[in-house]
Amino acid sequence: MYAVSSPNSQYVVAKFGGTSVANFESMNNCADIILANANVRVVVLSASAGVTNLLVALATGCDSDKRENYLKQIRDIQYAIIDRLNDVAVVREEIDRLLENIEMLSEAASLATSDALTDELVSHGEVMSTLLFVELLHQRNTDAEWFDIRRIMRTNDNFGQAEPDSLQLHTLAMENLHARLNNTIVITQGFIGKEEKGRTTTLGRGGSDYTAALLGEALGLQRVDIWTDVPGIYTTDPRVVPAAKRVEKIAFDEAAEMATFGAKILHPATLLPAVRCGIPVFVGSSKDPKTGGTVVCDKTKNPPLFRALALRRKQTLLTLHSLKMLHARGFLAEVFTLLLRHNISVDLISTSEVSIALTLDTTGSTSTNGSLLTNALLTELATLCRVEVEEDMALVAIIGNELSQAKGLGKRVFGVLESFNIRMISCGASSHNICLLVPGKDAEQVIQTLHQSLFES
Ligand code: ASP
Ligand code: MG
Questions:
Q1: Ligand with an atom nearest the CA of residue 48
Q2: Which of 8, 51, 103, 171 fits 47 for a cystine, CB–CB 3.0-4.6 Å?
Q3: 210 CA: nearest ligand 1 atom
Q4: Spelled out in words, what is the top-level CATH class assigned to the domain 12-228?
Q5: DSSP of 350-410
Q6: Contact by Cβ (8 Å): 162, 195
Q7: Which residue among 51, 188, 208, 209 is best mutated to probe the pocket of ligand 1, counting the most ligand atoms within 8 A of its Cβ?
Q8: Ligand 2 centroid to 448 CA: how many Å?
Q9: What is the mean pLDDT for each group of 10 consecutive residues in the chain (457 residues)?
Q10: Contacts of 282 (CB under 8 A, 6+ apart)
Q11: Is the beta carbon of 46 within 6 A of some atom in ligand 1?
């Protein structure tokens, strides 16, 4: 890690997500946003919405009918944008060449796929969206330059989840990108990079935010703007509580807590590069830039006791009972070793003299019902203890500041929840959250009740 003490440039990097560059109209909104702020000099784009998913599907290798269908969908998305531009012979040729490439790589993938091939294929989404966007800016008489991020984004070769080398990025960005910013707006790709041997890599799904934050850090920029389809971070999901309020400014720690507990809006780990060197990150909606958004920064003044409520559904509660636990040593170690062997990440824990209750973290899980419990795991656990399983629970997280120091919290939180069955409580480990496990069917009502009492009065 290199030390960048504070931003040294007045310039801003703006990132636009897939829905923001989904079609011609939304791309035009992005252009408006960029043109409204002369300091926006680096623009990071995702692939047009839907394209990455289609490319991922092609990369898994599919039969020719499916392949044709997916290719057509990608072509339709990109052509719908080209068709709205004027005089686009050159761009059309370039996009056609990329589409041909995609077809060729997809055929290869259906014979034998690999992680490297997948990344190569998937990277075409960002390459196409950036080419189209540069053309759109040119047609709006704006000076903009297409820049291949792979010239500077060096990563390891962990395809699909490659980790950038921020030291090299800093050096290369200063050499190849920094000076350009004085003369033009640079349009580049999020999500993709290049490993040592020159093969294309990707930084993990949703990786464009990470690209933007890394560039903010590498170039010492003033701010990172993340334009997405929601106007910032709210006290809770406005679909559950219409009275939810936008948080104007939030500390990185708090935003990270919110994301951990299921607030989908951004993944703060991806913002870490910006925040660790003191660059604020703005999050707003590209459809509605005038509404403003939320600023995520290192610290906020007078942080409130209660900041937000988050909800995570489909939680599984495991209760393990064993008399062996009584005054025993190593029982927890045995249980956790077993869980580790089954690749289970434990979320909440509470213990009593002869039992352990724990919930499983299903966030990275790809299983359709969100459950990580396998028969093999249950059988093995049963040799150690009696196991009870309760599915379809919901985790409600109350996120705030210095919660572990506050007086009267118990009454404020639990007083209003007297009509609910709270199955498990986790409190005290973090001064940033209190977690409650409730039956899934009660989750929304619990959130509504808590929101009203903690945020609306
Ligand atoms: N296009 C990539 C994805 O859909 C990266 C991104 O959008 O951030 O995951
Ligand atoms: Mg995205």
A1: 1
A2: 51
A3: 8
A4: alpha beta
A5: EE-SSEEEEEE--TT--STT-----HHHHHHHHTTSEEEEEEEEEEEEEEESSGGG-SSHH
A6: yes
A7: 208
A8: 29
A9: 63 97 98 97 98 97 96 98 93 97 97 97 98 97 97 98 97 96 97 98 95 97 94 91 94 83 71 88 94 90 93 92 79 90 89 90 52 85 93 93 92 96 91 94 98 95
A10: 223, 224, 225, 226, 293, 294, 295, 296
A11: yes
pTM here is 0.84
**Closest ligand, as measured to the CA of 51:** 1
Per CATH, the homologous superfamily of domain 307-456 is VC0802-like (3.30.2130.10)
Residue ranges matching CATH 3.40.1160.10 in the chain: 12-228
The pLDDT value given to residue 12: 98
pLDDT at 43: 98
pLDDT at 257: 80
Residue 234 assigned as binding residue: yes
Q: Does 16 contact ligand 1 (Cβ within 6 A)?
A: no
pLDDT given at position 172: 98
pLDDT given for residue 7 in this prediction:
62
Give the separation between CA 253 and CA 259, rounded to whole angstroms. 10
Q: Does ligand 1 have an atom closer than 6 angstroms to the CB of 190?
A: yes
Q: Is the Cβ atom of 47 under 6 angstroms away from ligand 1?
A: yes
* Chain region(s) in the chain for CATH 3.30.2130.10: 307-456
